[in-house]
Hints:
Layout: H1 3-13, H2 17-25, H3 36-51, H4 61-76, E1 86-91, E2 94-102, H5 104-130, H6 136-152, H7 159-177, H8 184-215, H9 220-227, H10 235-252, H11 262-268, H12 271-296, H13 301-324, H14 333-356, H15 364-388, H16 403-406, H17 408-422, H18 428-443, H19 447-471, H20 507-525, H21 528-534
Antiparallel strand pairs: 1-2
Amino acid sequence: MTVAAEAVTVAVTGATGPARTAAESVVQSIDWLAILPPVVVAAVALLVLVADLFVRESRKHLLGLASVAGLVVALLALIPLRKGDRTTFCLVDDATACSYTADHFALAVQALVLGGALLTALLSITAAKDDTRIPAGEYWFLLLSSAAGAALLPASRDLATLVVALEVASLPAFALVGLRRGDKRSSEAALKFFLSSVTATAVMLLGVSFVYATTGTMHLTEIATRLDDVPAQLDTLAQAGVALTLVGFAFKTAAAPFHFWVPDTYVGAPLPVAAYLSVVGKAVGFSGLILVTVVAFPSYADVWGPALAVLAALTMTVGNVAALRQSATRARGAIRLLAWSSVGQAGYLLVPIAAAAYTSDTQIGSTVAYALMYAVVNLGAFAVAAVVARTRPLHRLADYRGLYATNPLAALALGFFLLCLAGLPPGIIGLFAKVAVFSAAVDAGLGWLAVVMAVNVVIALFYYLQWTALLFRTPDGAPASQESAAGTPAPAEGGGAPRRPALPVPVPLALAIVLTFAAGIVLSGVPQLILRFATGNLFQ
């Protein structure tokens, strides 16, 4: 403390040494490096919003480039934190109770979230440029704001920060879904998404209030300690708080029967936003669910363990059966299939969390590894869908027939992504992720859940392989170069519209496909890496 500051302290308190020590003890030091990733994204969001006021319409694409650059910087900011040993915003009298912890779990999820937001931004550059109904400045601000909240959530270690981060991630997402001007389907999807999410938040806040009334603290580690010795008269209140909190997060993770908003939201949202919700939105919900169950509520594992196991079985079954029923000729059927597929994948992601109630907490690493695999390949599938939509905007599954003849690289990439989702070679990362999740269920003694998962994997094989086979069939029932006698393209099979020639793939879309394909190949080579990193020190 400087001489001037000491003089002020003396003048105000009338004391020197002891008073100065007390004054210093209430001032928290902030580890700016630890919180740098979400701070960078939030700062870039504000800069983009202000810059939008001064940038001419013809140069709005620069806002997208600035957003991509900001997300790259945020990803690079994770590198100095790779040891996973930094905390900040801790209690003055208890340095172990902190509101922000950059451990390996948080860093793995932040890398997933920021990487997913970066790939979404690459998909969005072309979409924002081609679709004049999307206001560019607002779009980029909302996307970055949501990404900032999503990056904050996995490092949150108290219920207040957790809820705030969850809402910062969710509120801009509502606007993104309905941002397209004059689109009734988009507005309807945004309304359904908003109402379901608000309901989930209300239920979750009620549960959080019950937990706080029982324990008298918001910090997750202290909640875990105090729930070990809850007075008998408060035990029912504590159980209700745990159950309501889980129900709130079940909405956020799209677990059945709280999944009803997913198909219509994905179909009505702009394609990049649907991709963002399928990956980043899911990562936010599952990371929050992991934190409240494994870190805050281990004493009530007998409550949330069986509940999550049942939810996992129900979710994967509902999602896969609904995906199986999608028609190849239905408009936006490909997006609906991806939506229902994401519900089924959510069921797989729930399995290791449920298993953690019966065995070691390190089972959670299987969820993180599976989420990373799913994020990479699902974003890649959406990137290829964006390429196909340039000539086939109806998003029908039939539009992918013969894609290999017109765009072989995109077809091969999509085939690889679908095989990864199915868990078949050469998608080794998909196979590894499913084996890790299956092993978690078996190790926990949840044999019935492992059987349900095995049946659902077989069901999912059918529609993933059916879509993959379409890519390599003869386009429209005839060679791609065949033309009618009048010189016009041959009609589609069944009297449909002629197949239009493929347009050049924009650089951002091509880059998104290349990045996801390369990441899938790398992770297939070293699948154990992310599993070891994610279980590094969250539960030590």
